[in-house]
Design brief:
Blueprint lengths: L2 H10 L24 E8 L4 E5 L7 E5 L3 E6 L2 E2 L5 E2 L16 E6 L3 H4 L1 E8 L2 E9 L7 E13 L10 E3 L5 E4 L31 E5 L27 E4 L4 E6 L6 E5 L5 E7 L1 H4 L9 E2 L2 E2 L13 E4 L7 E6 L12 E5 L7 E5 L5 E5 L8 E6 L5 E5 L3 E7 L2
Antiparallel strand pairs: 1-27, 2-3, 3-4, 4-5, 4-6, 7-8, 8-9, 9-10, 11-12, 12-13, 13-14, 15-16, 16-17, 17-20, 18-19, 21-22, 22-23, 23-24, 25-26, 26-27
Length: 401
């Protein structure tokens, strides 16, 4: 990008970029028309960067480092001390790396008043959801001693850990878990509703979209069960909201519509993007491990599944899908309603999808050079999008006039 063009872009958005580590602009005084998308490098953290997110109405960016810490960008600077450090180097519980580490972060919808946030990570033999609080003395520091395990799920392998968490429009916390690892879902977790069925090692909370009420504690747990969860009254684990996920990397809500976009990593042939409108979500079965994509993987395949609207095939060069987010920011209005996603490979790519009235997708592979080995595309408080990669880089999605 030419220096003059970059300066003009940032000036139009109401700010300036003085150093390579300057924070991207959160809100724009003058929106920029067009759809010529690029990823602009805005930060570099240690190791692998996993996700960028933020609390509501907060101008800061919170960046997950896979090893187990969370960093803050504020006012154009990456703060030197982490917001929270649960890494092994800090005597924390997070196990890393490969597909393990700190994987998810979500701020409570009332974070501004209650200071609560949630993280997911891999520990020894388990996938963990924990609740923590911000320090009462410093808004840029979490109180590590406040962290409490909310839910811990035994996991026998190091891969397929899912880990993405978000609060839904209903105020409940959603957590996508992987199938636990091993090729082909060997413990049959994806379709299981109860532990130990159909195999002794089956863990029913793996390979699912879970939904819990973190504002209510019932039955000695650190959470409650929403009354309309599909198995709240029995027949399966009450935390289950959807079944049949393999390793959803990543998934998100569209803040404008409540649609849920799920990118699920395939077994050996098919990468998946599935979109569910709010009325389609509760109790949905995405098929794994009976189906890979829309193809039968392991019989029986005689039940209805919510199959993906977009399949990406390994034979066409796709490797391991990295899901993204629907753009709802104000800087680039021509991108409104566009979902961005990528692939975890060395070539670097960026694709878009738009949901049509008949639930099909219009998909476009964008021309250009984009970051390799993308680990997420996610939004800040203002709806602007950021991509992270496994070399620790953070990019803002921008439009070049």
């Amino acid at each position: 990008m030419k220096r003059a063009l970059l300066a003009a872009l940032l000036a139009a958005c109401g700010g300036s970029k003085e150093t390579p580590d300057a924070a991207p602009i959160m809100r724009c005084d003058t929106p920029i028309a067009g759809s010529n998308v690029q990823m602009q490098l805005v930060a570099q953290v240690n190791g692998s960067a996993i996700l960028v997110t933020a609390p509501r109405d907060d101008l800061r960016l919170f960046i997950i480092e896979q090893t187990g810490s969370i960093r803050i960008m504020d006012g154009g600077a990456l703060l030197p001390a982490p917001f929270l450090d649960l890494s092994a180097d800090a005597s924390g519980p997070v196990t890393c790396c490969g597909e393990r580490g700190m994987l998810g972060l979500a701020f409570h919808p009332q974070y501004a008043t209650n200071g609560l946030f949630f993280v997911t990570y891999t520990a020894a033999g388990a996938n963990v959801l924990a609740r923590c609080s911000v320090s009462a003395l410093d808004s840029n520091k979490a109180d590590r001693e406040s962290c409490v395990d909310v839910l811990s799920i035994p996991d026998f392998a190091s891969n397929h850990n899912g880990g993405m968490i978000e609060f839904g429009p209903d105020g409940f916390l959603y957590w996508a878990t992987g199938d636990g690892g091993g090729a082909g879902d060997p413990n049959r977790n994806g379709q299981a509703l109860q532990d130990g069925d159909p195999l002794p090692a089956t863990q029913a909370l793996l390979g699912k979209m879970l939904r819990i009420d973190v504002d209510t504690k019932t039955d000695g747990l650190e959470y409650g069960i929403p009354s309309d969860n599909p198995f709240a009254g029995g027949g399966g684990k009450p935390e289950i909201f959807m079944i049949g996920l393999r390793n959803a990397w990543r998934w998100t809500f569209d803040r404008a519509t409540g649609d849920m976009w799920i990118a699920d990593v395939g077994q050996g042939q098919i990468e998946e993007v599935t979109v569910l409108r709010p009325s389609q979500q509760n109790g949905a079965n995405l098929g794994w491990s009976s189906y890979e994509g829309n193809a039968c993987f392991r019989a029986p395949c005689d039940f209805p599944q919510q199959g993906p609207q977009n399949e990406r095939f390994h034979n066409d060069g796709w490797t391991s899908i990295t899901g993204g987010q629907v753009y709802r920011g104000s800087c680039f209005p021509d991108l409104a309603g566009t979902y961005f996603y990528t692939d975890y490979d060395e070539r670097g790519r960026l694709a878009t999808a738009k949901l049509n009235a008949d639930d099909t997708l219009t998909v476009v592979d964008l021309p250009g050079t984009f970051p390799a080995n993308g680990s997420s595309i996610h939004e800040d408080a203002a709806g602007e999008l950021y991509e992270t990669d496994t070399s620790g880089r953070v990019f803002q999605l921008v439009v070049i006039p």
